[in-house]
Amino acid sequence: MKSTSMLRGVLPGLFGLWLVSLVSTGHASEDTIKVGILHSLSGTMAISEPVLKDSVLMLIEDQNKKGGLLGRKLEPVVVDPASDPDMFAKEARELLSEKKVAVVFGCWTSASRKAVLPIFEQLNGLLFYPVQYEGEESSRNIFYTGAAPNQQAIPAVRYLMSKEGGEIRRWVLLGTDYVYPRTINRILSAYLAEKGVSPDDIMTIYTPFGYSEWRGIVDRIKAFGSEGKKTAVISTINGDANTHFYAELAAQHGDANEIPVMAFSVGERELLGVGIVPVGHLAAWNYFHAVNSPENKVFVKMWAEFNEQGDKMTNDPMEATFIGFRMWAQAVVQAGTTDVDAVRQAMYGQRIKAPSGFEVVMNTNHHLSKPIMIGKINSSGTFDVIWQSINPVRAEPWSRYLPESARRTADWTFPWVCGGCIEPTFHDW
Known about the structure:
Blueprint: H1 2-30, E1 32-38, H2 50-65, E2 73-79, H3 85-97, E3 103-106, H4 110-123, E4 127-129, E5 142-144, H5 153-161, E6 170-176, H6 179-194, E7 202-207, H7 215-224, E8 231-236, H8 241-251, E9 261-263, H9 268-271, E10 282-285, H10 294-306, H11 316-335, H12 340-347, E11 351-353, E12 359-362, E13 368-370, E14 373-377, E15 383-388, E16 393-394, E17 409-411, E18 418-421
Parallel strand pairs: 1-2, 1-3, 3-4, 4-5, 6-7, 6-8, 8-9, 9-10
Antiparallel strand pairs: 10-14, 11-12, 12-13, 13-16, 14-15, 17-18
């Protein structure tokens, strides 16, 4: 009787545990991998960032059609930091600590990236940053898929100094007033000084985000360029201020043959908002929509179909997002998990044939080897590629032209394990 009584007490408990196990198993099979998307959908950067949000959504949809990753569907978690670095920090923390995302694709300006960097390091999150930047950084928790200065800024100036580029000898460094333009211009000023350019032949101008009163500045640029030496503008203007700048340039008949503008933050999509196309002006990127490669045909078609043919225009940060997402997916499959530490290790050496037509590879400094391209704006408002590197160029996060950076190494494999070492360092992670 005692044993029968015991069984009567135990069996309901076992049955309850079996039900819990069954329900848990059911939930596990329906579990998703959450992917954070941290891009401004409003504010001054809404001219550039929403398309990157849509690019990630396109890639998630495509991956889910293939069965997801590790037998689980990908679930996008979209937030809008509204072009505000403080909001970027707040949303990043929520994505990692509350939403429990496995990875984040996001940021455009360096101000936003700098705002979230300590949060990703503190919470050991993983951010893929898809835009060209000023270097002087390599974080264990960020993979940089845009250009470093030696993959954009330095080659662009070198091109303009060449016979092919117009033998420019005078320079206007024009940018939005924040960390990226100021650091890039410090690097370029050091590079130009090394090439024998006098400080009198360099004029530096900064404007606030969203700046719209360009008449006086364009007057200054034209006056500076009329003093007997061939002059060019290096533009690190970000956001919707570009629309007003190019409009004023057109209003004052700014001739690209007289004073060309070489932009580092203007691509095909930013030109869509410019009323009068600034024909003949230039941009330096690692990819242009007009690239003629089989991989780019597939990429452009994929984007057009995602938008039901309503939008076919691609640009460099979209390609960088594509590269980062595909490499992350490959690393997850290789690691067999979305665990950040395992995926980070699996990222080193990941390579894909990019839409640029080049095979790009992720290096242990958390930056890519990528091609360099110079584009010229044509009458249809897109870029014709007029120069490109023969091979991909390995990114150098620390500039050799800045004394405090020249000896630094970014390498996240042992024995270095740091983003800016002068001597090998060991760290127990």
